[in-house]
Write the structure tokens for this entry.
Amino acid sequence: MIWTNAVIQGLLLGGLYAIFACGLSLMFGVMRLVNLAHGDLGVLGAYFAIILVEHLGGNPLWTFAAVIPVAALVGYLLQRFLLDHALNGGELSPILVTFGLSIIIENLLQQTFGANDQSLNIGALSYQSWKIASDIYVGRLNVIIFVVAVLVIVALQLFLSRTPAGRALRATADNRRAAALSGIDPKRTRAMATAIALATVAVGGLFLAMRSSFAPTSGSADLLFAFEAVIIGGLGNLWGTLVGGLVLGVAQTVGSQINPADGILIGDLVFLAVLAFRPQGLIASRSVAVR
Amino acid sequence: MQDDTQPAVSERELSRRSMLKGGVAGLGALGLSGALDFAESNTASAATRGKTIKFGYVSPETGSLAPFGAADAFVIGALKSLLAKGVTIKGVTYPIEIIVKDSQSTDATAASVAEDLIKNDKVDIMLVSSTPDTTNPVSDQCEANQVPCISTVAPWQSWFFGRGASPTTKYKWTYHFFWGLEDIEAVYSSIWKAVPNNKTIGGLWPNDSDGDAFASTTTGFPSFAKPLGYSIVDPGRYADLTTDFTAQIAAFRNGNCEILTGVPIPPDFITFYKQAASQGYIPKVATIAKAMLFPSSAQALGSLAVNIGTEYWWGPTHPYISSLTKQNCAHIAAAYEKSTGDQWTQPIGFVHALFEVAIATLKSSGEAHNKSAFVSALSKLKLSTIVGPLDWATGPVPNVTKTPLVGGQWRAGNTQSGYALVVVTNDQHPNIPTASSPQVIPGATV
């Protein structure tokens, strides 16, 4: 029973990782850009929600409606005015630029909000649960996070496979130059990818803030888990990212059940094992494209 | 001229007057009196100006320990104008300069900024506070470089034995004041026994130096609690910044742990406790070190924080008075809240006390720039401070004196965070008033 419980809680945890990771996966798939500020941008979204709640009140759940569009807009502008320039600067420069962005965001947040841990207080929902067996409880919020994670990834898949904009994204991912020759505006496409990525990571940031707590430097830890989820699942593959998140979550909770000191370590070992023995990820793409 | 003897002069006034006097009468006229004035200098004209005494101060202002350093700017700011007037020793007034460095919450940075303060800034006296990760490397640097160091806010065992000492070791240059593990054990058990329970303790002890010390079967909580008839469920050390506590929660729930204790870092306890509540585990009584010291943690937990207990080292209801400013604890806490807009926190009193100790020692040593005289005076110092009476002559080991510790619980309150820490047990220190008695956690599931 203990093991079943560990697996179930691990799957729920994996949902949160998958939300964090899918934007990272998308940006890498479309423009081979590893966004090292990804986690910090999610945390930034959570601080935005804190400000909104402080000034406007109410249950923080409503802030999703405000934070998501703002995050998307920020993503669009970020790509247009910063990352696009970085992409022209060779392979290393986007990494350096996003790394710098990460440091700037963390320090600005620290200056503005201090180093204290904060939390978005959604009242009883953060600790209410459903009892599904004699000693297995699933937290309602965790179930919601998991369902949202699956919905977000399904919606992104449908968007990529069924809509013209999605096709443009996939075409750009497969072959940038050919896509441009067929009349796809690469700048607009890239900006759209970043807008979507930021919208999803903001959702992740808000869920993190409701589930546990966050501080200006939390983004780095989130980035690490998101990165592991992407690699475990397969680079640039959204289904893979979902699977990767779930595998990482289960590895951590089952690992902690074996030995509490080793939960995170066992997650890291699974990640290393995948890198060593199946570098294309558990769900391999034929190319690295988003599909 | 006659207003020179009034204690409250603004800095601007001071410098304007100093300049005027400096131009007219040279060094002789620079006797600046104030609350720091000591008997010899009551006649301003008698005092001459000595070489600046430099204080180095290291604490974590950024990083994961930053809540400990959050009060520094306020405390130092409040004392700066007082200290800028200088301290008068044997008729000579010595200006005091405080150089503050951030440990960034890592021991490596703490050691390197301490070295920088010693080698480049050439500080006369080092002050350090907040957790062994900060106090120990800085103290080690001072011991090695023969600079007097006053340390606080780390359990004394972590500071003393954590640096490789034996019970008979005597450090020459480094001194510490705070409480110890025996005090927190006594305080926690005083809270446990006040609430009816099955005497089963769940231990949430992380894989770090505090977790190891608390969980030690020879010197930690197990060795203390088992002889008192408590049984302990210890699922094992876990890594800091763990995102999921399912294994620990299952162990505590299945073990029917009506008492929860531990020394987690704040984000881990917030994650743990929310998850525990959602997985059907809320203990009857909880005593949580470190994570529950600060109002921000209570605010992050929301209503779950009510009646969670923690150690209470300093607060506005403590019956002590500052030897520097003559303010009482309530005054200092209120001044902090007014100046920063934040709720008071426990380190405020201890940072203030560091400066009390440094100034009192300078005064009693009778020399401004004699390091040996300073540590010799420090080893004999008896001083009533804002955190209680200090007396290094009677410490548990050489170089250490203990401050009083009582037990607190969080209550819903009309404060900035919506929660207030109140004193609930004072078994060892009945002179510190309690505001309430220990209460059971609402909604306990075990």
